[in-house]
Amino acid sequence: MNTKLKDTGVEFLFEAILALETKEECYNFFEDLCTVPELKAMSQRLAVAKMLSEKKVYSEIVNETGASTATISRVNRSLNYGCDGYELVFNRMQEKKDQ
Length: 99
Hints:
Shape: globular
């Protein structure tokens, strides 16, 4: 884990997120916590990561998500050199789908 992230405020945020149980609770919490552009940016990065993990090309990702090539490059760097957080989430989502 990035030690720059680890502090009591971030820990409290993660505990709060882990306390959510439904999509409706997520909508309510994140609407209170984030601005619409912040939430849209996070969801866009997640969509970009999913498409990159599916081996989609940049031009296809730009057309489908509207993300800039700079954003796609940053997400790609996280996929290749990050903490495998995207992979963990995608695997768990697929496992839930398969059940």
